[in-house]
Amino acid sequence: MIIINFLVNNSDVIILGIIASILTILLQTVVKVVSNLITYILTLRWSLRRLFSFVNKEDIYVISGSIDEETNKGIALLMGPDASAAANLYQTIEDIYSNSKVKHIYSTTNQSIYIDENIVSVGGPVHNVCTENLMKHLKSIVFFDENDALNYKGQIHSKSEEIDEDYGLIIRMINPFATTRKALIIAGCGSHGVLAASILFNKTKKFRDVQKDFKKKFGFFNNLLNKNFIAIVKCRMIGNDVSDITFIDTITIQ
Asked: What residues form the membrane-spanning segments (predicted)?
């Protein structure tokens, strides 16, 4: 009876105490979630900025390939995985380099406009003149042959429809046409290879796993010094998407 009387006489206080406890727990949960989210966003931005290695406030050009067929605008744009890769890269760069002017143009544009700027060239040399001109400076190390096969360190990698497999190429280098700027090439044997290569630089769910694999292959000191590099990726093709992205080799370059 004593306990019941106590509860009856102090019911308002007890209820308020329970409500306060619940609110405290909810507040702690919200603060933890928000804190983790802010930490994730900040570390993600930092990781991506190191990967791109562009200087803030400088112009950045995302260069997409185009095919030869004429349209009413003079060019026919690539579709599918190539287009997804370029669009995602453009959006990511805009987000993390908010003080830079980011422009998305096509390789049929007069090269004098962008060739001595910071460049992200998306797509292989067949449909992207910018990629073709940049890769000429590395032809002793890596190149695409007439069959779109990737030749690298004496090995040949090519897209296979039979086993749904494609290969991508990432090159981060000093822009050979303007040594104070950077050039990033995102290419592939096929368009799925391009998309797979772009995942390392995109804010997607796959980014963390891909970045982890890249760091493992690239090595501790190369990551620490943030050296320029060539990397080859392999992926599984699923419709217009990719999965099982793995780095099969990375090397440092000047």
From this structure: 14-42, 183-201
d(CA 139, CA 190): 19
| Residue whose token pair is 């990033």 | 184
Residue count of the chain, please give it.
Answer: 254
Whether the CB-CB separation of 187 and 124 falls below 8 Å is answered with yes
Compute φ and ψ for 75, nearest 5 degrees.
Answer: -140, 155
- Alpha carbon distance, N-terminus to C-terminus of the chain: 84
Residue 213 C-alpha from the chain's centroid? 14
Question: In a 3-state reduction of DSSP, which class is residue 108?
Answer: coil
- Predicted TM-score of the model (pTM): 0.80
Q: Say which amino acid occupies 153.
A: K
DSSP for residue 59:
-
Could you tell me the CA-to-CA distances from 178 to 100, 112, 118, 182 in Å, in that order?
18, 12, 9, 8
Q: pLDDT tens-digit profile of 39-95?
A: 344 557 888 899 999 987 889 999 998 765 444 444 445 567 888 899 899 999 999
